[in-house]
Design brief:
The protein is of the alpha/beta class. Helix content is about 50%, strand content about 15%. It has two domains: about 1-130, Rossmann fold (3-Layer(aba) Sandwich), CATH 3.40.50.2300; about 140-225, Winged helix-like DNA-binding domain superfamily/Winged helix DNA-binding domain (Arc Repressor Mutant, subunit A). Residues about 225-228 have low confidence and may be disordered.
């Protein structure tokens, strides 16, 4: 897998580069700001771009803006964003980017200390999956209640399926987690998308809409009311 790195802390940039190369990944280049990262991706698009959410000059949302730019120019490039804090609004913005590609990830920066977890996330994003940090999922599930939560329409089983979708699990992966058949998961997803007002899966496919991303986004917006 070919990986690009965008990290303004040069020591961490070097650690990531050496660590990933040492595990057999091809790090095609590293950058420390949006401008140099844009040149890097335009010149030689990687399979996955690993980027910090806060970059110079203001260290606010430059990484997200870079992700939006890369998705617009190179929709085939997977995006794995690192953040020191689990900002729900940033995760919602990342998942809400236009386009059919699902290859997106949002991890807390602490995961950098565990190369196995980081590399697993890179591979999953490279395969087109959505990866959301488990800690962010837990934060959402224990957050303050919100009025008129559409997730109240879902049964406990449907909520669990949707939570696994939000983590980027495939239908097979969800079936394995819930010890049921893939067909059962597909039926749950059809009911979930209908209850959330996302339309049928067949209709979404005809319109080129990625229902799994929309469902994951709906989960992020409403998961503060979940009690599983």
């Amino acid at each position: 897998m070919r990986v690009g790195i965008v990290e303004d802390h040069l020591l961490l940039q070097d650690i990531l580069t050496e660590g990933l190369r040492g595990r057999g990944l091809d790090v095609v280049g590293a950058a420390a700001d949006v401008e140099s990262a844009t040149r890097l991706v335009d010149a030689d698009p990687p399979d996955v771009l690993l980027l910090d959410i806060r970059l110079p000059p203001d260290h606010r949302d430059e990484g997200l803006r870079l992700a939006e730019l890369v998705r617009a120019r190179h929709p085939e490039v997977g995006l794995l964003v690192l953040s020191t804090q689990g900002e729900v609004s940033f995760a919602q913005r990342l998942l809400g980017m236009p386009g059919e590609s699902r290859a997106l990830g949002y991890l807390l920066k602490d995961r950098v200390g565990n190369l196995d977890e980081l590399i697993d996330a890179l591979h999953r994003v490279g395969k087109g999956e959505v990866v959301i940090d488990p800690q962010l999922i837990r934060t959402l599930m224990t957050g303050p209640p919100r009025p008129k939560n559409p997730l109240d329409l879902l049964s406990p089983h449907e909520r669990r399926v949707l939570a696994l979708v939000a983590e980027g699990r495939s239908n097979l992966g969800i079936a394995e987690q819930m010890t049921c058949r893939v067909g059962t998961v597909e039926k749950h997803l059809s009911v979930i998308t209908a209850k959330l007002g996302l339309g049928s899966l067949g209709e979404a496919n005809r319109r080129g809409v990625n229902v799994r991303v929309l469902a994951a986004l709906a989960y992020l917006r409403g998961a503060g009311d979940l009690a599983c």
